Amino acid sequence: MILTGPEITTAAGDGRLRITPFDPSQVNPNSYNVRLGPTLLTYTTPVIDAHHPNPTAELKIGDGGYVLQPGELYLGHTLEEVGSDAFVPLLFGRSSVGRLGLFVEITAPIGDIGFHGHWTLMLSPIRPLRIYAGMKIGQIMFFVAVGPVDLYTGKYQAATGPQPSAYWRDLTPLTAVTG
């Protein structure tokens, strides 16, 4: 079951979910609009290596916005800190942003119960696109979980700002797999 807008407002008020800052005008019929934070990260090497940490460059979105370029992956973040110990959050790009040719959260829309922090956004434009800090970039829906809950305690917990991939932290050495 999905939470309706009025239930999102109630759950944010009684602590079952946290959205900071919370603005009632960003509540939709069954989702909450999140805004783009002021910081972007880009990877700085020509080849991104899944087995190692990758260097990044930090970019700030100024008052005049920032022009995203096709063929580049930008890691952005939500302005809001969002999380819940009771509901499963899913984040998707807003349709109006998609109609501008910007992919948001291409492959990882589901959040874990127990995660609290800024959500890292994977931004990829079809053509050059000027974006602005504070623009409504996505929407989060909340679903009721059924069954015992095991709260998230992973590597991205309490994230502030965009987070580069930490996939390499989860790797099992090949020798352990092949014996």
Automatic annotation (TrEMBL):
SUPFAM superfamilies for this protein: dUTPase-like
Keyword annotations from UniProtKB, A to Z: Hydrolase, Nucleotide metabolism
NCBIfam families attached to this UniProt entry: dCTP_deam
Protein name per the record: Deoxycytidine triphosphate deaminase
Native species: Streptomyces xanthochromogenes
